[in-house]
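Sequence and fold:
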Amino acid sequence: MDGWKNGGVGLVWNEFLRGDYVMWGIDDRTHEILGTTFTPFTSKKNNEPLENWLLRSLKPKIDFKFYSTDFDGRMVVLLEIAPAYEFPTSFSGTEYIRVGSCTKKLQDLSVKERELWRVFDKVPFEKQISADNLTGDEVLEYLEYKAYFALLKLHLPESRDLILESLGNDDLIQKNTNGKYDITNLGAILFARDLKKFNNLKRKAIRVIQYRDKTKSETIKEVVGSKGYAIAFEGLIRYINGVLPSNEIIKQALREDVSMYPELSIREIVANAIIHQDFFQSGNSVMIEIFINCFEVTNPGAPLVDIDRLLDSAPKSRNEALASFMRRIGVCEERGSGIDKVVLQSEIHQLPAPIFETSNETTITILFSHKELRDMDKSDKTRACYQHSSLRYVQRDYMTNTSLRERLGIGEENRSMVSKIINFSLEEKRINIYDTNVGTKARKYVPWRVK
């Protein structure tokens, strides 16, 4: 194929979700190398660089890459196209599908379109292919396989075949029909030596940004990870703890620095963001931002449950295989307990209640540094009251004036102050009175959703 006329833009559907290829310089029928004069890196469309034009015309944007090589004086060009995820990719507003040797509009083939949607629905992200047609040696070059056995506390097999068999048993790789291997998204996102080698995952590296003050106006440092999540997680947590601000306290006449946030909360928030992110969102990843007064983690994807019900709703995950493996290696613990731990740690350390919110199809979690009660605004107080009642409820207990005083570190002499917070929360419909027939001092409270 030469020029544009036979190759089109190469937006071709592959039923196995492994991407597709368009070649220039190869005879379609005989596969003879003919050569091509097509030069994608210098070509333009309407005076715009070709690659920019292609990328601008795609919705949603998917990864693609041109390669060129010389065979005995004949130039051959290859276009590698990453697979579409969740829904078809359109070019200039139209979706196309390959039928035999022809490219047709998807909307004209309703049966094929229905088949396509069924495939999207059935193949989870973790099982889709990130790199294909690799030799066994190439697989071991791409993946940090020794870390796989170390994290699972397993003996490292002596032979390459047994290593590959173990990776396959956990769906990190799979053997294809030609005897070579494919690395799944699960294998790459967990154990990649370098995520940049996987076109569809290179933008899923975790970013950590440290700011000078309470705003984003001045960045001290920004670090972008490069390794798979499983092998990078402990190092990531160490790095975060190393750059977090500290609180100086005096204990038994000795001055010491303690972390501004409980390490367990940091671990759970980061792990939750990794596990529950929406990998099908392109161009963004888990982002960790450190300010002098708060710690903020954003992950792609709105939560699958009501944002106000994170403490007590049955856990749901977009990435069950990823979540399961991360539990096996101890990154996170039993299902659904992460948010409970974060809220509990904030109470134990008498920190302001964390914020859990969603915005523009992302989930945001914010931890706050210590703040005196007099410096908290109304929303801080009602949020703490609501989360405390929710935590007590999942523990099969009830919030009382006394329990909230203990959570906020308020003495008995300031009981009326806590009563005001409770009344605020009742007015805001954040909590309900559990037993209306008893006196105010003996009342118990439950979250607003509980009658």
User: Anything to note?
Assistant: The longest strand covers residues 64-71. Residues 275 and 319 are 7 Å apart (CA to CA). The chain has 13 helices and 22 strands. The mean pLDDT is 86.
